[in-house]
Each structure stands twice: as C-alpha cells, then as structure tokens.
Amino acid sequence: MKKMDIKIHVNGDWYELAVNSGDRLVDVLRDQLDLTGTKEGCGEGECGACTVNLDGKAVLSCLILAVQVDGCTILTIEGLQRGSELHPLQKAFTSESAIQCGYCTPGMIMSANALIYNEPEPDEDTIRKNLSNNLCRCTGYDRPVKAVLKAAKDMKGDTNV
Amino acid sequence: MFESHIAVGKSLERIDGVEKVTGSAKYATDIRLENMLHAKLIRSPHAHAKVKRIDTSSAEKLPGVRAVATILEVPKVIEYWFSLRTEKKKKQMFLRDNVVRFMGDPVLAIAADDQQTVDKALSLVKVEYEPLPAIYDPFMAMEETDVKIHSRGNIAFKVNKDYGDIQEGLKKADIIIENTYRTSKQKHAALEPFGTCVALYQSNGKLTVYSSTQLPHWSRHYLAGALDLPLNRVRVIKPHTGGSFGGRCGLIHGLEVMCSWLSRQTGRPVRMSFTREEDFIGTETRHPMTIRMKTGATRDGILTATDVDIVSDVGGYGTHYIGVIADCLSTGVGLYKTPNYSFSARAVFTNKSPCGALRGYGNPQMNFAQESQMDIIAEKLRMDPLELRLKNYRELGEIDPVLNEKILSNGLRECLEKGAELSGWEKKRHQWKRYQRSVKATRNRGIGLSIMLHGTGAGKALPDPASATVMINADGSVNLITAAADEGQGNRTVLAQIASETLGIEFEKISVSETDTETTPIDCGTHGSRQAYSGGLAVQAAATEARNQIFAYAVKELGAAEDQLRIKDGVIFEINNPDNKILISDLMRKTQIEDMNVCEQVIGSAAGVAPAMPGYYGAVFAEVEVDTETGEVKVLKLTNAFDVGRAINPDLVKGQIIGGGVMGIGFALTEGLLIEDGRILNSNFSDYRLLRACDVPEIVPIIVESDEPTGPFGAKGIGEGCMVNVASAISNAIYHATGVRLTDLCMTPEAILKGLEER
Ligand code: FES
Ligand code: FES
C-alpha cells in the first residue's frame, strides 16, 4: 500500500508521518504517536470516546482520515496539562468524582475543552447537550456535567486547544 | 453511631483519578508488546451448524501470516469456577467440537504481522458448514428433542425448591394475582468493548495474558486448564478496565484462550481486539427470562404464598446460568417473609448469543416480576404500596431461609422512610392521581416505588476466597498487595482506605499493587458486589496482623504494655502518656535496617472466606411523565435509597447509585437486543440505545448506613443492587400515571400505547 506523508501539529510539536490512505486519525495518534489516552469505543462516530480537539473544535478522531488533517493542529488529552499542573478540567473531574472506569473521560474532557474555548461560560443545559455526544456507562453523567460546570467557572474561557 | 475515623467514611479522591484524567492509564486496548502479532476471528454466519471443513491453505501462504487456530483444537470455556472444585467437573468446563451454536460463534482465528494481512488472510479462508435446525425460543427448545444444542440436551439446568406449603398458602389467600413477565436481552455496553487481550507464550513455557477480566485468578485457572499448563506458568495481568458490569466475569468467549493458543504456536505476543459490533453479537448478555408468578395475600396485605416458574434463556453457551437462577431464588425468597414459597426454574439453551452475568445477575428480572406483583396487590387492596412493603419485608433478626443465615443488619425501613420523605411520595401519590382525573391531560405523571435485596459476595455458595498482604516499608509507607480487580467502581481506593484505617497510617501512604496473579495471592475476583466486604475483610485482617507486629516492636522500644499503645497519623504512642511515642517510620527503619540483628520487615497476610453473605437493601422512588399520545415515558426523577452497611467512601457509593440508576432506566425503557432469525439487529450505539447526558433525570442518591457486624467497619455491598429495582419502580410509576400495567421489558412507547388502548 502506498504511504503518504503528512505533517501535523500535535500537543505542541510538529510531526512528519507516513500514513496509509485509509488510516484514521485515531489510529495515527494511538499507534504511531503512542498517544493512547484517546480511546476508541465504537469506531463509528457514536460514542465520543475518541474525541480530540482539531483546530479548536471537538472532533471524532475515528471518523477522520489522517490524510485529511495534514497541516492541522491537534490537541489530545495528553497535551492538556500545563507543565506539572493539571488542567482545570482534569482537576474538576477528579475532585468532583466524575470518573469511574475512566474510558470515556479523555473524550469527555476534550469535548468540554472545545466547548469552553468556544463558549467561555456555558450553562448547565449547554454542557449537558454538549456532553450528549459522549457516552458513559458508569457515572450516569451527573458528575461529569457538574465537573465541567465547575471547571468552566474556574477557567473563564482560558484554555488551550 | 460510628466512631470517628481517619479514612473510613470519608469521600477521599480515588487513587487512580490522575492517571485517568491525563490519559496515562493503560487499558487492555492500549497494551502493545514488541514484535506483536495481530489476530482476528472468523465468526459463524449460521445460528447452528456443523463445521465440515476448514481450508486455510491459501491464507497460510500469504506472507506475514504466522498462525491459525480453530475450534477443532482450541477449547471453549463453558462453565464457571464452581466447576474447578473437582477434577471431573473441571474436565467438563472445556468443550472442543466442530459445532457453532449462535450467529457470531467463533470458528477460527488467524495471527499475522499486521492488521491488513490478517484481514486479507481471513478473506482467503474457506469454511464449509452443514447448517443444523436452529431454535431461538427456549420453550420450543425444551420441547424439541430432535435438535440438541448441546449433547446433554437443551435444558442446561433445572431446579424446584419449596419452602412451606404452597397449596396451604394459596388457600389462606384472599386475593391471588397471577401474571407472566418477560425481560430483555440487555447488553453490558461497557465503553471499552469486551474483547481485547494480548497473550505472550514464551519459550520458557510461561504464558502471560493481559486481560480485562474481573476474575484474574479464576481466569488463570481457566487458561491453565484450556492450555494444559501448570498454574505457576500462567500469569494474568489486568490493566485498567473500561467498565465490566459482570460481562468480564471469566474469560471472553473466543478471546483469551484463542490468543494464547496463537501465541504458543508462534512464540510471539498476539493481540486480538473485538470491534463494537463483535462486542454486541459475540459476547455475553443478560439472561432474558419468562417469569410466571402467582402471589397470594390476605385482605390485610399479609403475603401467604408465592409460586414462581422461570424459564431462563441461556443462548448457545452460558457460564453463569446456575448462579443466575440461584440469585432469582435467594433474592425472591429472601426479600419478603412469605411463609410458603414454591420456586421452579429451567435454564435453556437456544441458538442465540451467550448469556452470563450482568449487574444484578438474576435479580433485576426477578425483582421486576415480584415488585410488579406487589404493586398490583396494593392496588387491589387499596393499600399504600409502601405500607404493603413494610408489612412483609423480612426484618432484622429473622432467618433467611435460602441462605439459612440470620439477618444481622437491615436498613430497608429507613430506605423507605427517607426515600418517601425526600421524594414527596405521599403528596405526589395523591395529587397526581387527582390531577389526572380532573384534567383530560395528555401528559400524565405518576410515582411508583419498589424495594430490593441483594447478597454481598457469594457466601458459601461458591468458592469465594479473598486474600491480601500488607507490607510496611522502612519509611512508614505501605504496600497493599491485592488481586481485587477494579472495573472503575473504585474498590482499590476503598481497600486502601480500609488498610489505612486499620493501620492508623495516613491514606496517602498506602500504595495499592497492580492486579497481577504473579504477585498477588488468590482472590475470587470482582463479582457479586463483594470487594468492599470480602476483599475488605481480607485487607482488614492482613492490616491487623501487620499492626500487631508493629506493636510488638513498639512494646520493646517504648517499654509500654501493648494494650496501652495506639497508632494515629503514623505515630505510635502510649495512650496515657502520649509523649512516650515513636514515628512508625523511625521504628520500621530501625527494625528493617538500623538494627542489624533484626532486619525484618513487617508483613501481614490474610486469606480466607467471608463468614456470611449479608444482604444489602434499597428502595427506589421513580417519578415519570407519560405522553398518552405518543406513549413516550420521561423519567422525571429518581430518589434511590440504599442500605450499604457502612459506606467506606460515600462519594463512591453515591457514584454507584447514580450510575446504576441510569443503567436501570435503560433496562426499563430502551435496552435490549433485538433478534430476528438468530441475527442481532441492533449491534451498534445508534440502534441499541443507551441513555445520554441529555436523557437522564435528576437522581437523588441516599445512603442509609446500617452496621453489618460481619463486615469490615460495618460495610456491605452496593455495585449491583443499585440498578436492580429501578425498572420495577418505573413500571409501577407508569401504572400510577396511566393505569397501564406492563409486563414486558423494555417498556416501549408502542407497548404503552397498546396498553392505553386496551385500558
Ligand atoms: S470511537 Fe469514535 S465515536 Fe466512538
Ligand atoms: S466512567 Fe466508565 S464509561 Fe464513563
């Protein structure tokens, strides 16, 4: 199979990669860059576990081909932390007990991050609607919603994407 | 009521939170080993067939293909750990034959250098089947004797149990209610799909398997049995797990054994990972049941008799079909003090995907029937459903006839009272009914309740070992060694709290081991809501032993009598002379390193089985709004009160109650696999509908703390029970709202519209 060269900006660094035309963004992140924090829950765009930020928007990395993101800026859960300090969303998810198995968590946090970037003070309804793209089988959503609400208040839109 | 503690009863942050929010937590899907092969299955397109011929010759010629394994040589595990008790039973656990028993049943797997080569190789395989007649209906399967799904017949298990005299009981009844209930084939739908494993068989004859199993130690037994290896040559490592809910209560059908087999052939690590569709079609589900129930009561609302007959649909294979039925029995009989109870059940093979354990085991099915019956009786007797429960539930001090154990803690009354108060039960019960009569409303509101009992652990019904080791280091920090598998509920955090409390050493100083059979003593695993209780007891005992050893050193060091010593915040001191003290870290350094005549580490170990199987209790108050034009049900609010004994970590307990509540709503309203001619129609998240953030109502979690005397610090379970009686409460609320009694799960708008028409 013929490989194609792409250049992508991931979590602050540029990478030059050779990818197959059929490789999905989630595969490239997980298998080539070893960024396994991004999860795959369905591969069909239905669960949100694979959510990453692409040029400031929340996208499903299982539905995007790697060749489509040539030249783009991508943020994954691994790039959210600021130095040794947890990002306000990460702090809120731990302090609000918004995690159980944690498999949905990176996707939820990245969805919320893009939301807060684009809409600095979302209310509970907006957050709930936004997180409806992310399935969670463990928590019943109540606490993730509260965690995002808390983080949004702390951040006032100050986030990186 | 409870004395103050340093760690127990506190909502401490979970120990794995930071790993999980930073993306560094490794799940089975994230494990990559050097030189790893990729494998995939070919699954049967037939619901029932004989595999006549498998031709892999062209596939094997493909460069990069390394190994093939088929069901002709690789055994399936078809029973659970109860069968490990005898050599004879153990042999029957493993099935090797050429029959496929459901659409999606694995036939063979190929391992190759990369995924593309595997896919190509699979397309070159030719499998010749001889289709056999398939049976999808368990009632037909019981009658049909020509078609045998397993050689021993289609009835996997049957049981009749009588308590008291059912005929006498029915004679004494003033009213008798009889109905048949049917429940759905619910799927676990854990966010990390079932079915990722990496196996490595090394040339030294040792097999290492990364598996998300809930039962690492039993899985080690299963793998050792299937591959005929000694136990000490099998190592099971359980990484973080993206939810299990019972579905990983053993090995995954066609996964770990297959992977290990392929690795043994190649000497290279082999990874297999099921897609979401494979998770839906090929891995275990809840047992759908048909439950005929006849309940008798006196005019005053005293239960006199319950007569139950259950047919449980096992699918093509089932490892838990006996336990699930036993659970129907023990929770059904245990909850109410009905003097005459007749229970019969059959578990029946059909040509559908296998069934196993799913949160609640057989209880959600049984509870739906029994709690619907109770609601009907209350209605007929014009009695408050709450009062009917209070009159009949089996109270503290009574003997549970199934377990033959005395009930030593029971907070059910408090659950009912608190739930009623916080939900506004009485007022809503009356007002909403009036409202419906006065206005010709198209949106009717209703409130319903139900209660439940669930056992903690397996007691003496199954081999249920737990063990732990506590090691104190020279700096006063602690290693807690346990095989307790954390599926996300947070039991490793809870066990660390128990260790901290028992030792008197700060929670932050406890480090919990990885879940790895190589380095941990045997534990039954995470099932039956048992870890806080059974696992907790083992940790408490191990920590107590360690503490006693610390005291023995401290007696010498401080010159005080042992009964005068206490530990708090890492300091050992004499109770009446607190200045006579030493830091645990100083004492441990002394005994381990400084004093070269000693050089001993404090190590406490404990192993054994929990003394009982205490019941935990719950009451759910569900409020719904039914749109009588569309049949749509909206759950407005759940008020869920659970008696968990002592809540070691209240925040984690509430997390279970809320999450279990949502799973219960799914079981009630949206979830169930649809099967047509053996084919599962809704094998993705668009068609199998899980609730999303915008669908969930407010859930008010209430913790009721009874003090279970056999439990660690009074603790019992919670994990399963919190979803058990949600569906029955919702059904009762729908009845209150509309007068429509639904007997089948899940309760669809169509069924409600039909009920409204027939009303
Ligand atoms: S894995 Fe991408 S949406 Fe589920
Ligand atoms: S925490 Fe398990 S899926 Fe969300």
TrEMBL record, chain B:
InterPro entries: Ald_Oxase/Xan_DH_a/b, Ald_Oxase/Xan_DH_a/b_sf, Ald_Oxase/xanthine_DH-like, AldOxase/xan_DH_MoCoBD1, AldOxase/xan_DH_MoCoBD2, AldOxase/xan_DH_Mopterin-bd_sf. SMART domains: Ald_Xan_dh_C. It comes from the Bacteria. SUPFAM superfamilies: CO dehydrogenase molybdoprotein N-domain-like, Molybdenum cofactor-binding domain. Gene3D superfamilies: Aldehyde oxidase/xanthine dehydrogenase, a/b hammerhead, Aldehyde oxidase/xanthine dehydrogenase, molybdopterin binding domain. Residues 22-133 form the Aldehyde oxidase/xanthine dehydrogenase a/b hammerhead domain. GO terms for molecular function: iron ion binding; oxidoreductase activity. This is Xanthine dehydrogenase family protein molybdopterin-binding subunit. It comes from Candidatus Desulfacyla euxinica. The lineage of its organism: Bacteria, Deltaproteobacteria, Candidatus Desulfacyla.
